[in-house]
Automatic annotation (TrEMBL):
<dbReference type="GO" id="GO:1990699">
    <property type="term" value="F:palmitoleyl hydrolase activity"/>
</dbReference>
<feature type="compositionally biased region" description="Low complexity">
    <location>
        <begin position="73"/>
        <end position="87"/>
    </location>
</feature>
<feature type="signal peptide">
    <location>
        <begin position="1"/>
        <end position="18"/>
    </location>
</feature>
<dbReference type="GO" id="GO:0090090">
    <property type="term" value="P:negative regulation of canonical Wnt signaling pathway"/>
</dbReference>
<keyword id="KW-0732">Signal</keyword>
<feature type="compositionally biased region" description="Gly residues">
    <location>
        <begin position="60"/>
        <end position="72"/>
    </location>
</feature>
<protein>
    <submittedName>
        <fullName>Notum pectinacetylesterase 2</fullName>
    </submittedName>
</protein>
<dbReference type="Pfam" id="PF03283">
    <property type="entry name" value="PAE"/>
</dbReference>
<dbReference type="GO" id="GO:0008045">
    <property type="term" value="P:motor neuron axon guidance"/>
</dbReference>
<dbReference type="InterPro" id="IPR004963">
    <property type="entry name" value="PAE/NOTUM"/>
</dbReference>
<comment type="similarity">
    <text>Belongs to the pectinacetylesterase family. Notum subfamily.</text>
</comment>
<feature type="region of interest" description="Disordered">
    <location>
        <begin position="25"/>
        <end position="87"/>
    </location>
</feature>
Length: 492
């Protein structure tokens, strides 16, 4: 296959600057050797090198003393602790490679999934991992060297243990611990949209995983929850209708539901270079347009029909896609998502902050809030962070006194009541969006951490540390801290 012309672009999807491997071979396994993780918890990623200009290795944004800060893919999403192969416990998920060997990772190695069965359960939780991408031989080689498990399966451990909603421990995961849990590693570099026979096979991997789960009983499932964080969350938006259709064609009488964590973004307002293909400074819209062609990407049919040829990229944005979906969807979204800020070159705690950037941060919260207005099921705290459902402490965060696991349970009960022609119970909310306006005005937010000292900071302390003149902005440090305290005491 001829090497495509040099294309570099920036793609914000689940907080990733997406780059594509145009030098992968059409068939056969890679001759490279990858180290990879040899064990560990799901969500615990190898250190990630940000390949975009001006970035630093393993950027974590504000960070969090509570373990919830930073990028979903590069950050620490679960409890650390590698396990050697062969030490599987009853809590571990076991690796299965796809039976269809023609559907592969970027380097030609077999794609696969991890499965933890719960005998007798008719509930299935499928999780799409997020991850980084690459756009040239140089950056792909660097990626392959530093995070080979996101391009190849050769270093995947035989077992993994889930955290957060993937945990099999009732105290950590009260409502889904007794489901069949499937973790689908991300190794296709296409935001789960690709169908091409070359290297971008994310959507095809999902299709083959469903096929391979038939002998395990997924056709008898009562509920199948397709979930994902960051790029995986966007993958849920793009694939939920396809999964529902596939199961229906197999004769399953299951309800397919979606859980999107930190994959709901709005378009960038920043002006970019007009020569997008020749620069990494692409808008998300332009990046998706290029990516769709490279990946042979697919979007849901009903959304695609709304747009003329060449405009299908709009279906990557949840607020444009949501109304076309027929499957129930629950959206989890921090109102001040760190990855949405990074596309505007705003790194909280890591650089100076201009007045214009501070204004953008405030506007972002309002715009995300407005975009979620018509979403039936949503959990949106007014916090600076990225991803939550695979965090071990995911039960800690609340909106108006309701935790995320509780909101998911209320949503589940409402759906079951509707299916059985019953009236949903009152006093069990699942549309939860913070009403306070400031970042970090929710008292349960992940803590902000100074990157240099690793000390926890209040929002105003961080703004001062980033060079903002609070008095010039009309902010009184003591008074506004009191205002924040008043807002959160009134329930956010």
């Amino acid at each position: 296959m001829k090497i495509l012309g040099q294309v570099a672009f920036l793609l914000l999807l689940g907080g990733i600057w997406c780059q594509n491997n145009r030098n992968a071979k059409a068939s056969g396994k890679s001759t490279k050797k990858s180290g990879g993780n040899q064990g560990g918890d799901v969500g615990q990623s190898a250190p990630v090198v940000d390949l975009t200009p001006g970035s630093t290795e393993n950027t974590g944004g504000t960070g969090s003393a509570r373990g919830t800060g930073g990028s979903a893919e590069a950050g620490q999403e679960g409890t650390a602790g590698a396990r050697a192969a062969g030490q599987q416990t009853t809590d571990d998920m076991r690796l299965h490679f796809l039976k269809n060997t023609q559907v592969t990772c970027n380097d030609g190695t077999a794609a696969g999934f991890y499965l933890k069965e719960f005998r007798g359960s008719r509930r299935w939780l499928l999780f799409l991992e997020g991850g980084w991408c690459c756009y040239s031989k140089e950056t792909c080689d660097s990626r392959y060297q530093n995070i080979p498990r996101l391009m190849s399966s050769s270093g995947w451990p035989q077992t993994k243990r889930g955290t957060g909603i993937l945990s099999s421990q009732a105290e950590e995961n009260p409502h889904w611990h007794n489901a069949n849990i499937v973790f689908i590693p991300y190794c296709s570099s296409d935001v789960w949209s690709g169908t091409g026979p070359y290297t971008f096979m994310g959507s095809l991997i999902i299709r083959e995983v469903i096929k391979d789960l038939i002998p395990k009983g997924i056709k008898q499932a009562k509920v199948v929850m397709l979930s994902g964080t960051s790029a995986g969350g966007t993958g849920v938006l793009l694939n939920i209708e396809r999964v529902a259709s596939q199961l229906e064609q197999l004769g399953a009488e299951t309800q397919v539901r979606g859980l999107v964590d930190s994959g709901w973004f709005i378009e960038s307002k920043q002006q970019r270079s007009p020569n997008c293909p020749e620069t990494v400074s692409c808008s998300p819209e332009d990046a998706i347009k290029i990516g769709l062609r490279l990946w042979n990407g697919v979007v849901p049919d009903r959304c695609r029909q709304l747009y003329k040829r060449g405009e299908e990229w709009q279906c990557f944005f949840g607020h444009k896609l949501y109304s076309t979906l027929t499957s129930p969807l629950f959206v989890v979204q921090w109102l001040f998502d760190e990855e949405q800020l990074r596309v505007e070159n705003i790194y909280m705690g890591g650089q100076s902050l201009s007045e214009e950037q501070w204004q953008y941060i405030q506007n972002l919260g309002r715009e995300l809030k407005n975009s979620l207005r018509d979403v039936t099921a949503v959990f949106a705290p007014s916090c600076l962070s990225h991803t939550v459902i695979t965090k071990s402490n995911w039960m800690s965060f609340q909106v108006r006194g309701t935790s995320l696991p509780r909101a998911l349970q209320c949503w589940d009960r409402s759906l079951e009541a509707t299916r059985n022609n019953r009236t949903p119970a009152k006093g069990c909310p699942f549309h939860l969006v913070d009403t306070c306006q400031w970042p970090q005005c929710n008292p349960t937010c992940p803590a902000l951490v100074d990157q240099a000292t690793q000390q926890e900071l209040t929002l105003l302390q961080m703004l001062v540390a980033m060079g903002l003149d609070l008095q010039k902005l009309g902010l009184d440090p003591q008074g506004d801290e009191d205002s924040l305290a008043s807002m959160v005491s009134n329930g956010g």
